[in-house]
């Protein structure tokens, strides 16, 4: 059973004539890295935002661990705790004075005891390699460092799934492999399911267990990297 699934999902933005997503049946296998690949305008960001309840499907449904997501306050709170999202631009999710506080924000918000918050933040900082940056003001970090801090801030929630929009955009080749290896570690060591929406099909053979190709709001094909690249 997939951990996160959409069934015949359709999404239309307000005042738009066309479907940004049309009949999308997407299944993210548990504990794997799934690539969601497509050119600009394919609908990746729209699907990304439907996978954690930021957007509500116009038609169709989203299932988390086999259960239909309910778009109530409680249902959305549960979904946002279990499905972490990492935006393309880290400045969209980092707004505290320093790295430590940025990473702890979600855990503090959950109302966890201080000791538990500290334990989770330290663990997340170690895993993402930002421990040395913990006292730095977030705005003074490089783009790649900010991306790591954003991922650490999601890890403290101990999510089942992390969905990332364009995790490799704007990074040099070393930055790309560092981020993708970090995602592989999270899969291997923590069992977290990773969904990476990207126009960068090159990550598929290197890092993905499975991939979906999206174009003009529709899914074109899905498969393992071998299956995807075997086809003409
Ligand atoms: P991608 O992330 O693959 O580039 P998007 O999900 O951003 O694709 O866009 C899918 C389609 O939805 C595009 O046609 C885009 O122009 C449209 N779209 C995206 N955001 C909005 C919006 N806020 N309002 C209206 N249309 C939008
Ligand atoms: P991405 O590929 O990361 O979605 P885009 O350039 O497609 O980047 O979109 C950048 C921002 O503009 C996003 O917030 C998206 O929702 C919004 N957007 C994209 N297309 C439209 C559109 N046709 N109308 C309004 N907003 C849009």
TrEMBL record:
Membrane topology summary: Peripheral membrane protein
Domain ABC transporter: 4-232
UniProt GO molecular function: ATP binding; ATP hydrolysis activity; ATPase-coupled transmembrane transporter activity
Major place of residence: membrane
Location(s) in or outside the cell: Cell membrane
GO cellular component: ATP-binding cassette (ABC) transporter complex
Single Gene Ontology BP annotation: cobalt ion transport
Keywords of the record: ATP-binding, Cell membrane, Membrane, Nucleotide-binding, Translocase, Transport
Domain of life: Bacteria
Similarity annotation: Belongs to the ABC transporter superfamily.
Task performed by this protein: Part of an ABC transporter complex. Responsible for energy coupling to the transport system.
Name of the protein: ABC transporter ATP-binding protein
């Amino acid at each position: 059973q997939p951990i996160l699934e959409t069934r015949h999902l359709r999404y239309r933005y307000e005042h738009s004539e066309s479907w940004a997503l049309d009949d999308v049946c997407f299944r993210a296998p548990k504990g794997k890295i799934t690539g969601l690949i497509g050119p600009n305008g394919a609908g990746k960001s729209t699907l990304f935002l439907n996978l954690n309840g930021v957007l509500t499907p116009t038609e169709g449904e989203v299932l988390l661990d086999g259960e239909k997501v309910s778009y109530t306050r409680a249902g959305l709170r549960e979904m946002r705790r279990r499905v972490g999202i990492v935006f393309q631009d880290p400045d969209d999710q980092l707004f505290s004075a320093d790295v430590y506080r940025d990473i702890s924000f979600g855990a503090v918000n959950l109302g966890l005891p201080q000791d538990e918050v500290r334990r989770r933040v330290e663990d997340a900082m170690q895993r993402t390699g930002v421990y040395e940056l913990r006292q730095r003001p977030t705005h003074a970090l490089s783009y790649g460092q900010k991306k790591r801090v954003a991922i650490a801030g999601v890890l403290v929630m101990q999510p089942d799934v992390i969905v990332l929009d364009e995790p490799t955009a704007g990074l040099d080749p070393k930055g790309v492999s560092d981020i993708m290896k970090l995602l592989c570690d999270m899969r291997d060591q923590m069992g977290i399911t990773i969904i990476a929406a990207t126009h960068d099909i090159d990550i598929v053979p290197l890092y993905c267990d499975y991939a979906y190709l999206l174009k003009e709001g529709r899914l074109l094909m899905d498969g393992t990297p071998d299956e995807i690249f075997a086809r003409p």
